[in-house]
Specification:
The protein is mostly beta strands. The chain is built from no helices and eleven strands. The strands form two sheets. Strands 2, 4, 5, 6, 9, 10 and 11 form a seven-stranded mixed beta sheet that branches. It has a four-stranded antiparallel beta sheet with strand order 1-3-8-7, with no helix packed on it. A hairpin with a 4-residue loop joins strand 7 and strand 8. It is globular and about 40 Å long.
Length: 114
């Protein structure tokens, strides 16, 4: 059974930081490209950051220089370090694993507010 379990979300003040984690099981982790998406009510789910199985990364323009995606193949886990957060980063953040199929986590809420 495939599971992607996100953690690390919460309430943070503008300018603060959070680190999201996505622990996976049931997949061959190092074969998968991994990504973080986010979604706000009434809007589509947008990619925030992606890391290939080879370690190449790309980011949405809105988060470049503030967010960093990384992966630990030994722990089957992908991370998203988020710095200098703004209210516009408020969303539900989803972990995605993509290879032969697409898998999604249940999401974790990030709220940036003073």
């Amino acid at each position: 059974q495939v599971q992607l379990v996100e953690s690390g979300g919460g309430l943070v003040q503008p300018g603060g930081s959070l680190r999201l984690s996505c622990a996976t099981s049931g997949i061959i982790f190092n074969f998968h490209n991994m990504a973080w998406y986010r979604q706000t009510p009434g809007k589509q789910r947008d990619m925030v950051a992606r890391i290939t199985r080879g370690g190449s990364t790309n980011y949405a323009d809105s988060v470049k220089g503030r967010f960093t995606i990384s992966r630990d193949n030994a722990k089957n886990t992908v991370y998203l370090q988020m710095n200098n957060l703004t209210p516009e980063d408020t969303a539900v953040y989803y972990c995605n694993a993509q290879w032969m199929n697409d898998y999604w986590g249940q999401g974790t809420q990030v709220t940036v507010s003073s």
